[in-house]
Amino acid sequence: MSLNVLILPGWQNSGPVHWQSRWETLYGDLRVEQHDWMRPLRGDWISRLEDVLLSQTCPSILVAHSLGCLLTAAWASHSRNTHLVQGALLVAPGDPEQPELQAALKSWLPVVRQSLPFPSILLGSQNDPYCSLERAKVFASDWGSEFVDYGARGHINADSGLGDWPEGRALLAGLSQVPGASRSPH
């Protein structure tokens, strides 16, 4: 089965050396572009993800980072089209309930806390400044995700020194059950 790999960056997007951007270049994954990366509104982001999923010609697998993880959960709780997603790799979820993030991310409260209708793996870091390991475990439990303690890797982003992050790609391939997480051309 062919799958589209959709990249869901978090707040402020993923820069050129972030593993998500590298995957887009290396593998042709499709970034879900939001109209406002600096003022992320949950409803707008959900609508955009829905539009992109409906435009695809085959099922998709979501590769979410930070706020993109919360987008996945929020979208799945509202959409009638969850059958279009075969799985999700959720990396370093952000926690909008942290006091220093509440004002900027108020439209993301409360965090959606229901099981995802597709398989998912959630990676948390022991020293993520945007989400404690304990909160990441709670999100994994709430969303029905397999949890992976990825060690002390910060926010599992460009600053974590992951490069092309082949370990993440292997997790994605296992989750999608397609060697190399193959997808159809766009």
Structure description:
This protein has helices at 19-27, 42-55, 67-78, 99-102, 133-143, 166-176, and strands at 4-8, 30-31, 60-65, 85-91, 120-124, 146-149. It is α/β, with parallel strands linked by helices and 186 residues long. It has a 6-stranded parallel β-sheet with strand order 2-1-3-4-5-6, with helices on both faces. Strand 3, helix 3 and strand 4 (85-91) form a beta-alpha-beta unit.
Oligomeric nature of the chains: single chain
CATH classification, class level: Alpha Beta
Within CATH, the superfamily carries the name Alpha/Beta hydrolase fold, catalytic domain
Write the CATH fold name.
Rossmann fold
Low-confidence stretches: 178-186
Mean pLDDT rating: 93
Head-to-tail CA distance between termini: 15 Å
Number of strands: 6
Biggest sheet: strand arrangement: 2-1-3-4-5-6
Give a brief rundown of this model:
The protein has one domain: Alpha/Beta hydrolase fold, catalytic domain (Rossmann fold, 3-Layer(aba) Sandwich). Helices cover 33% and strands 16% of the residues.
Topology:
Elements: E1 4-8, H1 19-27, E2 30-31, H2 42-55, E3 60-65, H3 67-78, E4 85-91, H4 99-102, E5 120-124, H5 133-143, E6 146-149, H6 166-176
Parallel strand pairs: 1-2, 1-3, 3-4, 4-5, 5-6
List its traits:
186 residues, disordered C terminus, single chain, six-stranded parallel β-sheet, Rossmann fold, alpha/beta
